[in-house]
Design a protein that fits this description.
Layout (H helix, E strand, L loop, with lengths): L3 H9 L3 H27 L2 H8 L3 H8 L2 H17 L11 H18 L1 H12 L6 H24 L8 H17 L1 H8 L6 H18 L5
Helix pairs in contact: 2-3, 2-5, 2-7, 3-4, 5-7, 6-7, 6-9, 6-11, 7-9, 9-11
């Protein structure tokens, strides 16, 4: 396990940018897991450091405080959720673009369920830490992509839908497999969801939402 001295040496190395990115990603991933289990109040920097396999001093070097790290975890989650929306362009095929976005959201729920749980818990507690991001970056992106969907509807390329509420429906349908995985597992009789379960769920959600938009795969 590297100590503080090793951290300084790493930052002096020619590839310090890559090392910094790797360390930050490692810490953010550990933060996702610990915040998902303990919440913001219950989580400690010591527990996150143990999860990351790094000295606690390294966490403070990169993020300063627990609040800074928590905000970074939330911001990364929102950024990763919004990135696939870039495929929704006026010239794109509506069915293909929406299916790609839905599959990306389902994949994130399968691969990084803790990210969704941390975000959901933050919203349930009033979104004090992430409210500004939602009113800024999230609102701007949704308005932009809702306008694209409205152009598809106006051109007769898909059924009339409320574009903004379509996003709410997609988020609810995809994130339930992370936020309420315990409930899904209980009904399916699973200890945890496996690849086949996620594939089945993805096929269902994609087909259902595309039909609701008057589209076929």
């Amino acid at each position: 396990m590297p100590g503080v001295g090793a951290l300084v040496a790493e930052e002096d190395a020619p590839n310090k940018g890559l090392i910094r990115q790797a360390n930050e990603a490692r810490i953010l991933g550990a933060g996702e897991r610990v915040f998902a289990r303990a919440g913001f109040v219950g989580a400690t920097m010591a527990a996150i450091a143990d999860e990351a396999g790094l000295p606690k001093a390294n966490l403070h070097y990169y993020f300063g405080s627990k609040a800074d790290l928590y905000k970074a975890v939330l911001a990364r989650t929102l950024h990763d959720w919004l990135l696939p929306l870039d495929a929704l362009l006026p010239e794109a095929d509506p069915a293909q673009a929406l299916a790609t976005y839905i599959r990306a959201k389902m994949a994130m729920s399968a691969q990084r369920p803790d990210a969704s749980r941390v975000f959901a818990n933050e919203l349930l507690h009033g979104a004090a830490m992430v409210g500004a991001l939602m009113r800024g970056e999230l609102r701007t992106k949704v308005r932009e992509k809702a306008a694209v969907i409205d152009t598809w509807v106006a051109a007769g390329r898909m059924a009339p839908v409320d574009a903004t509420h379509l996003f709410f429906t997609i988020w609810a349908a995809t994130q339930t497999y992370a936020d309420f995985e315990v409930q899904v597992c209980a009904v399916l009789g699973r200890d945890q969801l496996g690849p086949a379960d996620h594939a089945r769920a993805t096929a269902h959600v994609v087909a259902l939402l595309l039909r609701g938009c008057g589209l076929s795969r």
